[in-house]
């Protein structure tokens, strides 16, 4: 089983989260670890740093998607003052996940790669 504690540490670094925030996102982290377990090949080292990074990137993407929906307000204008949120946490999370997926490609089951492609042949 992939070490959830190592995944939590990696998520903390990705998002700059403290312990309290990590606890709030523990469900996302646990789900990402379970999803990763399903995707890795039987002969893979479950605690290889690349697999830890992959699970952390999955969790971080889920966290960013949820935070993006919860934030709601992306810009605000009052008179001459205008503020706009310029960060793209979801895009950053997707890039981190793509990088992590590529790094641990050799550890993943063949069907995991098909699951993440944008094309699927469903039959005739």
Describe what you observe in this structure.
This protein has 124 residues and is mainly α. 61% of the residues lie in helices and 6% in strands. It has 6 helices and 2 strands. The chain has a two-stranded antiparallel sheet with strand order 1-2. Helix 4 runs antiparallel to helix 5. The protein is elongated, with a radius of gyration of 17 Å. The termini are far apart.
Characteristics:
124 residues, two-stranded antiparallel ribbon, mainly alpha
Spatial sequence of strands, sheet with the most strands: 1-2
SSE pattern, N- to C-terminal = HHHHEEHH
SS field, number of helical segments: 6
Percentage of residues in helical conformation: 55-70%
Low-pLDDT parts are 117-121
**Principal-axis shape:** elongated
Write the topology of this structure.
Layout lengths: L3 H12 L3 H6 L1 H14 L9 H23 L3 E4 L2 E4 L4 H15 L6 H6 L9
Antiparallel strand pairs: 1-2
Summarize the structure.
The protein is mostly helical and 124 residues long. The protein has six helices and two strands.
């Amino acid at each position: 089983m992939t070490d959830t504690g190592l995944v939590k540490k990696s998520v903390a670094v990705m998002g700059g989260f403290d312990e309290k925030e990590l606890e709030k996102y523990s469900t996302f982290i646990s789900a990402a670890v379970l999803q990763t377990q399903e995707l890795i090949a039987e002969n893979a080292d479950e605690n290889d740093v690349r697999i830890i990074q992959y699970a952390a990137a999955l969790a971080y993407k889920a966290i960013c998607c949820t935070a993006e929906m919860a934030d709601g307000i992306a810009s605000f204008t009052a008179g001459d003052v205008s503020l706009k949120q310029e960060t793209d946490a979801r895009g950053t999370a997707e890039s981190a996940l793509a990088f992590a997926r590529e790094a641990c490609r050799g550890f993943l089951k063949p069907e995991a790669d098909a699951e993440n492609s944008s094309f699927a042949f469903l039959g005739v």
